[in-house]
Amino acid sequence: MLERGNIGASKLSLQKNGLSLPRYSDSSKVAYVLQGSGTSGIVLPEAEKEKVIAIKKGDAIALPFSVVTWWYNNEDTELVVLFWGTTLKAHKAGEFTDFFLTGSNGIFTAFSTEFVGRAWDLEQNQAKSLVASQTGSGIVMLRDGTILPEPRMADRDGIALNCEEAQLDVDIKNGGRVVVLNTQNLPLVGEVGFGADLVRLDGSAMCSPGFSCDSAYQVTYVIRGSGHVQVVGADGKRVLKTTVKAGFLFIVPRFFIVSKIADNDGLEWFSIITTPNPIFSHLAGRTSVWKALSPEVLQASFNVAPDVEKLFTSKRTADAIFFLPPN
């Protein structure tokens, strides 16, 4: 399904002193820090200086095409970063291809020393030595005491947003909370081409059945807790009925309806939506389409008497997106 939706996903894990070597990718992405803290360097296309930002759990970072990044963990806790992206222009649908600048699999290991020397204005022996010095690939371990650039708070502007500290878009007591990433609070997602949201569903609460009404896929990674998910597609066919827990990933195709119910310990997830300013239509609650339809249409559509229609429309007049557990 990821391949069909031209969506890729990957995870980066760094132990203390682990450095993910500089690279660029064939896909635009959003990175989300699942655990730990560290430092990231970001070089935007045609930029003359890298942006160096401190990252921690809850951070979302927008990474457009051709951005060069490196990631470093100088803390004892493992740093875990999740990457989502569109693979519409990638070499392989549903997969990221990374191009490392250094290391044993770095792009300059394949160029002849003549080309490297000419490009960098070095003698050929100097170019050969420089390219061959880093024998590691992808991730390397640095020595204790290694000094890397200090993060700058101003570099986060427009690139990174901490979803756990951001202003809530939805906040329902004992129901749940939502932070939506879009071009207003994270402008660079406009270049990335999709938005995201962080949702925290309280214990035994329900998230209203709904769908993305702007032809977007939803790809969801469960961060914490557990619960139940059902997805319904065309012709009234249920395509997914499952129990999810931390570490699970699932995708909701375009226009398919999804609903979730949290277990007693709650359910938290991070999703990307393949549009920078996602819009959802809900099929339960006070903002649902049922509240907009006329009584006569509802009676005819459900083939019920007026008293049944009145009972139906009298429910969920105050609840919006999240529904508290029954008493």
Keywords for this entry:
Jelly Rolls; mainly beta; six-stranded antiparallel β-sheet; ten-stranded antiparallel β-sheet; 327 residues
Short description:
With 327 residues, the protein is mostly beta strands. 13% of the residues lie in helices and 42% in strands. It is elongated and about 90 Å long.
Polypeptide structure, described:
The protein is mostly beta strands and 327 residues long. The protein has 2 domains: 116 residues, Jelly Rolls; 118 residues, Jelly Rolls (Sandwich). The strands form 3 sheets. Strands 12, 13, 14, 15, 16, 17, 18, 19, 20 and 21 form a 10-stranded antiparallel β-sheet that branches. Strands 2, 4, 5, 7, 9 and 10 form a 6-stranded antiparallel β-sheet that branches. It has a 5-stranded antiparallel β-sheet with strand order 1-8-3-6-11. Strand 12 and strand 13 form a beta hairpin. The chain is elongated.
Helices, strands, pairings?
Layout: E1 7-14, E2 18-25, E3 28-35, E4 37-43, E5 51-56, E6 59-63, E7 68-73, E8 79-86, E9 98-100, H1 113-120, H2 124-132, E10 139-141, E11 160-162, E12 170-172, E13 176-181, H3 189-192, E14 195-201, E15 206-212, E16 218-232, E17 238-245, E18 249-252, E19 257-273, E20 280-282, H4 289-292, H5 295-302, H6 306-313, E21 322-323
Antiparallel strand pairs: 1-8, 2-7, 2-9, 2-10, 3-6, 3-8, 4-5, 4-7, 6-11, 12-13, 13-14, 14-19, 15-19, 15-20, 15-21, 16-17, 16-18, 16-19
